Amino acid sequence: MTIINMKYSNYKISICHKITLALVLSLICVGNFSCKKIDDTQSVRLATEESNWKTLEDARANLLSVYGLLRSATVSDNTHWLMGDLRQGDFAITNRADLKSIVSGQLNAQYPVIKRITNWRRFYAAINAASIFIERSKEIVGKDPRYTQINNNVDVAQAKMLRGFAYFYMVRIWGDVPLLTSSHDGDFVKLPRTNKEKVLQFATSEVLAAAQVVPFRYGGTDPILPGLYYGGNWPTWNGIIFTRLSAYIILAHIAAWQGNYLDAANYSKFVLDNQSTQYFVDGANPLDYIDMDALTNNVNYYSPFAFKRATLMVGFPFEAGNGLSTANGHIEQLTLAAPFIPKETPEMFVPKDSILKIFTDPQDLRFGMIGNSGYYRTNYFTNFASEQPIFSKIKVVGTQAETQGNFTFYSSSMVFSRLEEITLLRAEACAVLGQRTEAINALNRAANLRGPIVYDPASGKDLIDAIFQERRRELMGEGWRWYDIVRYNRIKKSNGTFIKKNGTPLTFRQFEDAGGIYWPVSPDVINANSSVTQNPYWQ
């Protein structure tokens, strides 16, 4: 995939160096499992306390470090995809036993990667960094006249949004988690787990408060925060930091996860109603629905995977032009092989029979046979005729020099949500509420981008099924599959066997009540804190 080349000022490069430093330090923090203090690693600060919290530059560096830490928490060891795409997902594993354990639901298997991704310490590093920023950044207002109260208000709102997003992300993984609402220099691991509903209530309040403060865009003509933001315009910042639309997307997902579809419908409607706030404004590319070539081949540089763009509404970029390519934290590390990178076989792939069952419309631009030619479209899959088709939907690979030897560098963004995703979530919410017309309109608005795939109300096809089938196709490889399975089964309330444990069949309700939808907590966490108990299903 082509990556746009741009000239960056020294100022913009310095921003990215700060993010890179935060990412590297946070990876060090993740690896140090023996530490017991939430901030005993310098990863939560980019300067010593003696010289910190004095200048506008301190504010910028510390805020961006929170983004860097949370980005690292979600993508290190490819956590986002291992947890979102493998459990009862569409991918098969070639030869990695640890990944096969995840696919088969053996989430307490003793593999190093499973031990690492089930340790929530890296999320608390980001949460603590956010709390420190919320508590201390106001000190700069009185010390540096360049750092205004409005600037601080917006920065603190972003930190609250990031903290709320981190808690929501953890609740989806573990259910109950310790709730820390202030910075902590002591043994945070001694705190017990807090009920997941209370944690989500806190996350909602954090993000909702932030949504009233942050602008729709930074560094331009937005009346909430007009003018340059830390010296940069909107093209500098779009796709990097969270906006007001980002806040309402997160709120919509929290509500949907709770089964509160009325709020999910309202929040998602706000996003779609205010889409125009991003359209060709302040010199940025438009935030609009993108066609197939833009999504998978970065035509016009609109792909949310390929570069920091407004189309990346909630997520974290890794821009190659700023030196942020990495070898870890990208789905391509698991899915690509020759001819894209010097690797014979991918570590995971979608089997051909699954592809044919998922993509049933021959006119689907994502995958299907081109007429009667015998050739298949390659937007999602390359070499379909081979035994292991390459999942090539996302393929943001480094330069040839970066792909020599055993290491390949990638630059794809971690995309949590984009316009097509939030549109499908609105379709889901409206369908649950019985608002069929609104649900069908939203479903067709997203699906029609991928070919003449129109849902006909007279077809008799179950609308909820149609929406989740489209989410399965559109969001494949974006870390959504498991969480969509959970929400689908909650909506359907089916009484059939969902899974078997030790030979005993369990309905989805029994499975969820036992805590099976969540991951086990790492033994390292429990050994360090006797007040943290294991999820019942994994005891």
UniProtKB/TrEMBL annotation:
<dbReference type="GO" id="GO:0009279">
    <property type="term" value="C:cell outer membrane"/>
</dbReference>
<dbReference type="InterPro" id="IPR033985">
    <property type="entry name" value="SusD-like_N"/>
</dbReference>
<dbReference type="Pfam" id="PF07980">
    <property type="entry name" value="SusD_RagB"/>
</dbReference>
<feature type="domain" description="RagB/SusD">
    <location>
        <begin position="399"/>
        <end position="538"/>
    </location>
</feature>
<dbReference type="Pfam" id="PF14322">
    <property type="entry name" value="SusD-like_3"/>
</dbReference>
<feature type="domain" description="SusD-like N-terminal">
    <location>
        <begin position="91"/>
        <end position="216"/>
    </location>
</feature>
<dbReference type="InterPro" id="IPR012944">
    <property type="entry name" value="SusD_RagB_dom"/>
</dbReference>
<keyword id="KW-0732">Signal</keyword>
<keyword id="KW-0472">Membrane</keyword>
<comment type="similarity">
    <text>Belongs to the SusD family.</text>
</comment>
<keyword id="KW-0998">Cell outer membrane</keyword>
<dbReference type="InterPro" id="IPR011990">
    <property type="entry name" value="TPR-like_helical_dom_sf"/>
</dbReference>
<protein>
    <submittedName>
        <fullName>RagB/SusD family nutrient uptake outer membrane protein</fullName>
    </submittedName>
</protein>
